[in-house]
Each structure stands twice: as structure tokens, then as C-alpha cells.
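User: C-alpha cells for Transcriptional coactivator p15 (PC4) C-terminal domain-containing protein, please.
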Amino acid sequence: ESSIIAAKDCGSVEGGDYEVNENVFDLTDLLCVTVYKHQTNIYVSLREFFLLKGSNIAKPSKRGISLNKLQWRELCSIQNGIEAATKIMAARESKSKEAKTKGKDQRVKEEGEEEEDDEPGQILFSLSWKRRVSVHQHQEEVFVDIREYSEDRTFQRSTKGVALTKPQWTKLREEMPNIEALVQHMEV
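Assistant: Done. Predicted C-alpha cells:
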């Protein structure tokens, strides 16, 4: 039973090493996953943490998103699709790099041929009515963005959410069985 509970984890950032409490999984660079129970509901929170001056214990910030148990399980069930989307986005990036290095003289477009830049800039997955996972590219890096969308303005992105880098997404996928085991442990 004790193997289910996350032990005190340690991470490292520019400012030095830090510790997080139990039930917290460190994804890297002060981005952590916390499993907690509020009243009868269980939540999985993906959140940025911060260090207080003179302390090495990381505390959660407001920046992030809490998923209920059903949303968490939906994220777990679509993880392979999200992983495939990250590979597609990375392949698009390498194609665009190749096109830029060939030069403009060799990029003469024949009549009727479409440009690849018309492809959508993100791939979306749904967790619930207002919550989505988008895989997109910013500059040269692929992000997995888990975010709430606003109903007010045709489902525009809200500030509630977190964008995971590729290494953070990989670490989250590795920790998913441990996090799910902790969720099941808290259900009892």
C-alpha cells in the first residue's frame, strides 16, 4: 500500500534543489501533479509550483488546472492519440525546416499545388464540454496544452490550464499508472 503513495520527491531548478510533499509527482522544472480529495471528489491537479525565498519546499501556485476523476481518466485513455499528435507536429516542424533550408528558388509552386502551411496549427482532443487538450507548436517546440475553454467567446482559450513541454508530457505519461493507482487508493 505504501508503494502507491508518492514519496517526497526532489527536483532541481536554477535556484537549487527543492522538495515536494507526498501525493505530488514532479514532472520537471517546478511543474508538478498533485492528487487530492476535496469533500467526496478526487482531483488530479497539474500545476506550476514556486519556491519561497530561503526555503527548499515547493508550494503550488494558481497557474494550472485541476481535473476531476472522469477528466483524468479521459486524459489517460487518449494518451496514445496525444503522443501520435506530438509526433505529427514534430514531423511538420522538421518538414518546414527542410523547406526553409532549400531556399526560395527551389520552392517554386506548380499550378494547382497546395502549400503545406495551410494545415491547422493544432490538434485538439476533448476531456469534457469546456476542457480540451491541444497539441500545438510554438517556435520550434511542441506543447501539450491542457486547458479550459471559455463558452462566452466561441470557445477561446482561458487562463486556466497548463502547457507541457515534450519532456514534461513524457514524464506525465510515465507517471500515469502511479497517479491512477493513487486515485484508486483515495476512492476507498
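User: Anything notable?

Assistant: Residues 1-8, 104-119 have pLDDT under 50 and may be disordered.
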